[in-house]
Amino acid sequence: MSVLTPSQTVGPYFHIGLDWPDAHRLAGDSTPGTPIVLQGRLLDGDGAAVPDAMIEIWQADASGRYGSDAVSGFRGAGRAAVDANGRFAFETVKPGAVSDAHGTQAPHVNVAVFARGLLVHLFTRIYFADESAANAADPVLTCVPAARRETLLARREGDAWVLDIHLQGTHETVFFDV
Amino acid sequence: MFRYRRVPAGVYPDNDTPAYRSSEKRAPREPPVAIPHTLSETLGPRFGAEALRADANDMTCQVPGGIAQGQRILVHGRVSDEFGRPEAHALVEVWQANAAGRYRHVNDDHDAPLDPYFTGAGQCLTDADGHYAFYTIEPGAYPWGNHANAWRPRHIHFSLFGPAWGSRLVTQMYFPGDPLLPFDPIFMGIADAQARERLVSCFDLARTEPGRALAYRFDIVLRGPAETPWENRS
Question: Is the ipTM of this complex over 0.95?
Answer without folding.
Answer: yes
